Amino acid sequence: MKREIKFRAYRKSTQNICNVLSIDFEKEWVLLSDGDEEDISDLDLMQYTGLHDKNGREIYENDLLQCTSYTYGNGETGKTSLLVKYDEMSAGFIAGPYMLGKLMDIRKCEVIGNIFENPELLEGKQ
């Protein structure tokens, strides 16, 4: 299976997210879907993971997910919020201060926001 390489960007000046049309890493500029060209330092780039949530929504780096993680003996379902994160040494989900070593069933996860537009959903998750 081939993974599509694409990005979206959080524009710091206007505090909104735009799709990225192209990136010139040598000149350090990014062409956004609204036609603007921005210096790469004025943006936070978020790479597409190649995954979709349970609703078919694309999952990007720095998205916040809510996942059904387990069922208690009484039938009650547990949910956990996760941050999609990448660094040079690892990639995965963060729950609280810990990187999870366990894979989550993405079919039970839903994108509920991202760290830039919904920081209140991240409380205690970093």
TrEMBL record:
Signal peptide segment: none
Q: Which residues form the YopX protein domain?
A: 6-123
List where this protein forms a coiled coil. Answer: none
Annotated SUPFAM superfamilies: YopX-like
- One short Pfam name that applies is YopX
Please identify the protein, giving its name as recorded: YopX protein domain-containing protein
Lineage, please? Bacteria, Bacillati, Bacillota, Bacilli, Lactobacillales
